[in-house]
Amino acid sequence: METSTPSYPPTERTQVKRLAKRGVYDKEQVHAILDEGFVCHVGFVLEGQPFVIPTAYARAGEQIYIHGAPASRLMKSKEVDVCLTVTLVDGLVVARSAFHTSINYRSVVVLGKARLVLDIDQKREALRLFTNHVITGRWEQAKQPTDQELKATSVLALPLDEVSAKVRTGPPIDDEEDYALPIWGGVVPVVQTFGEPMPDARVMPGITAPNLG
Amino acid sequence: METSTPSYPPTERTQVKRLAKRGVYDKEQVHAILDEGFVCHVGFVLEGQPFVIPTAYARAGEQIYIHGAPASRLMKSKEVDVCLTVTLVDGLVVARSAFHTSINYRSVVVLGKARLVLDIDQKREALRLFTNHVITGRWEQAKQPTDQELKATSVLALPLDEVSAKVRTGPPIDDEEDYALPIWGGVVPVVQTFGEPMPDARVMPGITAPNLG
């Protein structure tokens, strides 16, 4: 059954080298991680120097849209080699030994060429996906962007071709003899939650906050 | 008063270009962001291709220690140009217009040369800082690493020289005429919390979970 799941073929660059057992190439798992996160870190190179910036993103099938602004360093050219990484932190892995202390996480790394989206309808679709990525249906509630606003927004598209995920789950793996020590071992869950929506000072009477899907 | 606060001098590479008003160079604010996060994204370049990997880190004064493993791509050389980025997500900024929808966040970008730490006592100190970064006093409770374990861990040190932070706070900034629309506007807080510690199957009787500072 596992072998029939569509997977991203590992390349020399995406083959998980460190702790290979944590490597995941299964498309469904990769998509699930990408859809759960909403801030990615995009790496690019300028004059030999790597830069890593956080930004919003959304997935559309086998493509990721990255949100940006025309003035940003990332958006200077029509095509740029990037590494896009999404990381979800799930827990602190508290081992009996400091050495085996770790973090439970799920991360996806996408390598490839990100291309500036020029078509205005595709840009609109990307903005729709950004807007609905966290708050389902928000695009339909909000005021739609004008063509001028769409021109003032830069969107990059990155294909999901060269992709790998890395996942650590479960309890600490201590050395066998250390389990006899009077030291606590286990996992402290790390949870990202949404608090109570805080209206700004100018919300019209009777307008309620959006539901968080 | 502001001017007497120690700051990181902006360079051509760290000058915040996009929305310059969000740029922060104040050391105290930069330190606070670095100390609140515990997973960073490190970017480096291999054969022209950027890579971005998530990893644990800790700050020691004007230096950051990055945790790694000797087999990882990052740890292949004694000195490597990196960009280390820490991002804390604080809220969804729900504007009346899709265009002004945003995210409240605090991020720090550090550029520089990360150097492999070879001295075993400095490595031990870095591991102590990683271990205590999230759970205060955990290093003192846990089994200390052996010299062999320290050799099996790679640590990089990155000076805090070329540093900038970027911060967005507060409500959405809608276009003036949009405040009259019957659309909700405000902020949905995003909060990272720790759940109830889950002991693994082999914790000795009477041993209680560590306190999360």
Q: How is this structure best described in words?
A:
Two copies of one chain form a homodimer. Chain A contains four helices and ten strands; from the N terminus they run βαβββββαααββββ. The first copy, chain A, has a six-stranded antiparallel beta barrel with strand order 2-3-4-7-6-5. In chain A, strand 2 and strand 3 form a beta hairpin. Chain A has one domain (2-174, 181-186): Pnp Oxidase, Chain A. Chain A has helices at residues 27-36, 120-134, 138-141, 147-151, and strands spanning 23-24, 39-46, 49-59, 63-68, 79-94, 102-116, 154-159, 162-168, 186-194, 198-199. The radius of gyration of chain A is 21 Å and the shape is globular. The model of chain A has no long low-confidence stretch (mean pLDDT 91). Chain A is α+β, with helices and mostly antiparallel strands and 213 residues long. Chains A and B meet through strand 2, strand 3, strand 5, strand 6 and helix 2 of A and strand 2, strand 3, strand 5, strand 6 and helix 2 of B.
